[in-house]
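Per your request, structure below.
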């Protein structure tokens, strides 16, 4: 048996018979069929779930619902961990201030907006007898006292935010910088 060797000058001439293209088209068709079947299966599941949810919940029959939100169990200090201890402290201060502002906003929306918005509504001057206006105002005094304390607390928090920002962005050349802030810009987050 003789072994023939191929010279490096000779290249194997491939004949493109289109078999790869045909195979690719077959695979593409199979993938398309799979996607169509999977889509129809997902639609059937979605329709089945929509029907069962509709049977359980009807706003006219059940006006009360539970709103379940995930509860984060890690504290703010656990979330802020970097190698730079000064940066940790700065971020912790701003995060605590942001949490305080969020709580104050929630308290204002739930406790004070409606009282201020609807005070004196529903009664006309002609329908009120002598002394009813004074009684209504007397009942409103405790609300105004709570509102005054709330406004004072908001003022203190805003002053704290301004002082913290001023300490961070100090431009005095003599005073020591807490952290290098050149080129740092805070992003505005609209809620």
């Amino acid at each position: 048996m003789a072994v023939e060797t191929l010279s490096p000058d000779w290249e194997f001439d491939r004949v493109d018979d289109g078999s790869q293209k045909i195979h690719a088209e077959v695979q593409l068709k199979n993938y398309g069929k799979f996607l169509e079947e999977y889509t129809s299966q997902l639609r059937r599941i979605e329709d089945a779930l929509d029907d069962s949810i509709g049977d359980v919940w009807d706003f006219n029959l059940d006006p009360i619902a539970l709103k379940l939100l995930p509860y984060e169990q890690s504290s703010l200090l656990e979330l802020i961990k970097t190698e730079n201890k000064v940066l940790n402290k700065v971020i912790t201060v701003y995060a605590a201030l942001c949490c305080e502002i969020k709580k104050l906003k929630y308290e204002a929306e739930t406790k004070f907006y409606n009282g201020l918005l609807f005070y004196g509504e529903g009664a006309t001057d002609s329908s009120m007898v002598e002394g009813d206006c004074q009684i209504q105002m007397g009942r409103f005094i405790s609300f105004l006292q709570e509102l005054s304390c709330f406004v004072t607390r908001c003022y203190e928090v805003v002053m704290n935010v301004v002082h913290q920002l001023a300490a961070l962005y100090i431009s005095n050349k003599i005073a020591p910088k807490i952290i290098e802030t050149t080129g740092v810009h805070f992003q505005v987050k609209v809620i």
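The two ends are 85 Å apart (CA to CA).

Regards,
D.
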